[in-house]
Structure formats: structure tokens, C-alpha cells
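Quick note —
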Amino acid sequence: MKHCITFVFFLLIFSDIACAQTELQPWGNLDGIRKGGQLFSFESSLTIIDKGWTRNSSTRKEAQQPKYTRDGNKQIVNTAIDSLLLVETVKDAGNGKAKIKIEATAKSDMTIEGVFFKLNLPTTYNNGSITAKGSSISYNIAQLRPENLKIISKEITVINARQQLKFSFKDAASFIIKKNSNGTELYVPVQTGNIAKGQNTTQEFTISVSGETNKKPVQVRLDAGNQGRVFVGFGGNFRLQKPDTDPEVIDYCLNNMRVAWGRVEMPFAQWQPEKDIDPLLQDPNGNLNAHVRESMEMAQRLQRIGMPIILTSWNAPKWAIIGEPHYRQPKPGEQWGNSLNPENMQATYKSITDYIVYLKDKFGVDVSLFSFNESDLGINVRVTAQEHNTLIKGLGAYFVSRGLKTKMLLGDNSDATTYEFIYPALNDPDARPYIGAISFHSWRGWKTETLQKWADAAKKINAPLIVGEGSIDAAAWNYPDIFQEQTYAIEEINLYLRLLKICEPITILQWQLTADYSPLIGGGIFGNNEPLHPGQRFWNLKQLASTPKNSIYIAAQADQEDVTCAALINSQTDDATVHLINNGAKRGFIISGLPKTHKKLVLYITSTKLSMKKRSKIEVVNGEAHFTLPAVCFASLMTE
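Predicted structure written out below.
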């Protein structure tokens, strides 16, 4: 009976989470409120305005060190801007409504205009209007002047032709509306005027959305004649960092998901801590560093499954770098990481190659690609773009001299935004024989034009493109509760489909398929002692990983902005796969351009309520399939 009560309680809690409507980022910014699955979008932040409106400081991604938690239907963010402590509680109140509570406490005296909940109105409201309850005046947004407009009311409503956004207060509040180059901004006061040390202020209000929900059927058109590059399959990072919890997560992922590529660590600093002591001559079978051995065994396990192996070094021994090793975030004005010591470069080449040779001789692992992790930034070895080119040629040639087939990874950049880092090697004919693939990490830089530069670079030298670390928030380990949120799960898988569509990578390597950024829940990870079980993110990844081997990208286009799609086909069997994100309401989908040899396809759906749920076979008539998808889900249509 006790277990039944516990299970029912768990279901109730899960139901609250699954029905969550408010899209809150863990640093405190709202992206909008969902109603009927459709996102009524806006962008908010908590903002401090200096005297004279000369400067402002706002909550934003990677600007503060927030903590995010969920308590039933409440999401709570604890953060700080300068000397101001902030607690933001967002409670889902149903029917497109959210209750917001903001608490501000000053650690020191602050001379400011005030603290505000700032909301950037979407451009869809540019031709709309603003009205205040109890007033006959309506303000046309298009005709607002740059000067501040102040409205004192218990309730204001922002209206466009199809939607409404309403703010409601218990007592009248003084709203400020500004129009500038950033668009139209609405400021809800939390505290106006100066704040004294120790002063505490609380503001509570309700935001509600209403309007039309888009239920128009979605048309997705495929063009199997417009074929691109090959997708071998989904992959993962397996850098071992948490010995107590890594093994069970790794076992679960490898036993329950097709993982096609693997990236493992070379613990360079532990492999050869002293330059003049050759690890190959020190009875490594008896004295091999424990972390080195575990990393080698990880590579061995992955290769036995059939994965190509990327070997990456996150550090280097003191003799191989300049200065004292420093791995933490640098102080203002300092750089990340350490430069390689040019005086010891040949010894560095030898040590890395010795590791790869030992890995092959003792563990049977053929390393396909080698890189220093995020060396454009310095996590934790830093090189310039030209030094990266020199390293590729020097270390690549050394690999050849030792009889290795291992190639160098061009880039392995921290983000998509730093693409210029790869250009010297990309444009150097002497470097090309040593480049096995190009890689970037997907933490930042998601604009189409930025991602396209990586696709173009790979095509220029006819090299595979790899997303070496896939996910969306490099700071998420600070607030791991966000991993269980629909917001995170949908944004992550949506990015992956965009990467497939734009970049056509040979693989995306999830960061990680270990306890770090775990796609699983419980098992003591992040202090959660529930039994280990898959979450929505795991099912998203498993569903994507189910794409048949060696599929070829084909052109696919949806006719609505809140749908993302990517399509692939096997040129020999005509097996087709169409991946879709329905980021809106429940609605019908029509897929055209499927191979006419297909008669039936299988549909898999993952959402907060469905875990790669298999639906009955979908009929295909003259290359066209019709079906309905639930709100806010990841769906995959594929051959059985």
C-alpha cells in the first residue's frame, strides 16, 4: 500500500510538471506562456536601471550564477545582479496564466532609478495597442514616441490582431513603456528609486495570454532528388568525471540506445607528468595512472561496440605548457587556459603519439581523430588560429612517421561563433592531408548564417563535419533541475534538427552520455535519489539515434515557423526518416515527397507524456502521409 501511495504521489507531481505552461529560463527570463500547446511568446528579464536611465544590468544567460528549482507548479530562480539578491517565483495558474512573485534584497546601498521586470514586446505587437483598465485611452504602439510613457493602473493589456497580453496587480502600479532601437519595452516596477542596504521589496502580479491558437495543418515537402551528405548516426561524449555515478548512466545509455560515435579523454597530464620520464618505459601495466587506465578502457569498450573513436585532451602536463596550469574561469582581463610550450613541442608530439600507440597495442583501440578540447578558447590548452594550423601539420606528420592512421580534428571549437579559428588550416593545402574531420560545439551560435559557415567549410575540403559537443547550455550543471524541464528538452532536440538540416553533420556527440549533464534522472545524480530512469531528454536522444545507419540528408521544408524538420533517406533501400518538432498546438501534418514504394511508415512521438510512443503504421498513398501530432512534441516518421 505504501508503494502505491508513493507512486500516485509521483504521478501527481509529474502531472504538475507535464502540464507546465510558463517557459522560464533558469537565469530568470521568461520566453512566454503556452496555451493549448501554442507558445504566446515574449522576452522578459529582471533589470536594474541606473540613475538617468543611462545604463542597465539584466538577468541573461551566463551573466550571473543563478540557481533553478521546481516545486510542483512553481519554478524558482535565485540569482543576483551586482549587490541585489533576487528571488523570482513563477507559478503556473492554468488557462494561459502565470503568477509572478519577485523579491529583491539589497546587500549595500544602491543609487538607482529602480528595479524592474522588463518585457520586450514581440514584433507581432508593433501594430497593436496598449490599454489600461478604467481608462478610455488606447495607445497605438506604432505611434509611440521614444520618450517614456507612464501608465498607472491595476491592469494593462497589450493587444494585436490575434493575441492579448495582460498584466494584473492587486494595487495600482506605475508601468513605464519605452520605444527605442530594440523595439517596444514594458517596465513593471519591483522597486522604484534608491535602495538601502538590507531593504527588502516584493512585487506580485499576474501575466495572462489569450488569442487565436494556430491549428492549421502543417505541410512538409521532401525532395529526395536533392541529396546531401551522410549521417552515420548519433554519438556521445564519455569523459569520465564522476566515478560513483558514471558507470550506471553509461551502461544504461549503451544498452538502450544505438550510439554510433564516441569521444573519450586523453588525460595527458596524468599520462606523462614528467618530461624526462617515458611512460612506455615505466612498467605501465603495473603503474598506469588509474584515470588513464579507466579512460583507455572506456575507449576500448566503445570500439568493441563498433564506434570510431575521437581522442581529446582537456589538459597538458606542466612541462608541455607555458606557466602554471589554471583550469578555473579567469579573472577579468585574463585568458583561459595555457599555451603550449614551443620549446617542448617535439616532446609533446611524442607523448601524445605514445599514448595512441599504447592504446592500440595494449587495448586494441585505433584512434580515428585527435584534438585539444576547445583550444580556441583555452579549455584548457589554448592556441591561436595559426598555431592550430601549425599543430595540425606538425602532429599530423608525426602520426604518419609513427605509422598511425590517426588524423587531426580541425577546430573542436568551443562554439559555432568562432569559425574564423579554423580558416588558416582550412585554407592551407599542406594541412589538408592531416585533417580527418571538422568539429564545433553547439553551446552558442545558432543563427542559420553562422551554422552555414561550418557546413560550407566541410564541403570546401570534402571533410566530415562533427558536432563534437551537443547541447544548449554550458552552465546547466549549476542548475541541473532544468534538465527535467520540457523547455530544455524541446530546445535541445530542436537545435539538433536544425543542425541536421543546415550543417549535415556525420554525427552529433551528446554532452554527455555519462552522469555529467545526464539524460537520465535519479540514481543519486545531482542529489536525486529516485531509482535511475530515463527522462524526456533521453527519449529524444534515443529516438534521434534510431535513424537508420548511413542515411543521406535530403531537402525538407515545413510551411510553418514553429515546426522544425529534417529528413534522410537510404539511397539503396529507399528507407526514409522524417524528424519533426511540433512546437505548437495539436494539429494535422501532411508529408509529401516520400518514396512511392512506401506503403506504410511508423510514427514515434516523445513529449512530457509520451516516451518514444510507437503509433500504428501510417498509410502512404502516392508518396503522401497524413497524421496528427500532439502539442509540443518530437516526432519521427520512419520505415519499420
